[in-house]
Automatic annotation (TrEMBL):
A Pfam family hit: HIG_1_N
TM stretches of this protein: 6-32, 44-62
Source organism of this protein record: Phaeobacter porticola
Protein name in UniProt: Hypoxia induced protein region
Keywords: Membrane, Transmembrane, Transmembrane helix
Domain HIG1, chain residue ranges per copy: 1-68
Membrane among keywords: yes
Keyword Transport belongs to the record: no
Amino acid sequence: MGDPLYFLAIAAIAATVIVLVIGIGSFGAGGAFSAKYANKMMRLRILFQFLAVVLILGYVYLRNQGGQ
């Protein structure tokens, strides 16, 4: 659990959740922020989600390599 890749994966997951909550909140609230940034927020969420998946897969792969 002390692996830096583990903490990077957790940070990417947290960033994904934060951006998702902000994006959904802006959709619900509407207004100027939603009109200007809603699509950008969802694109950013997809980027963070991709990074989180890559980091998780990398962590699992490297952890399994060390156990052999």
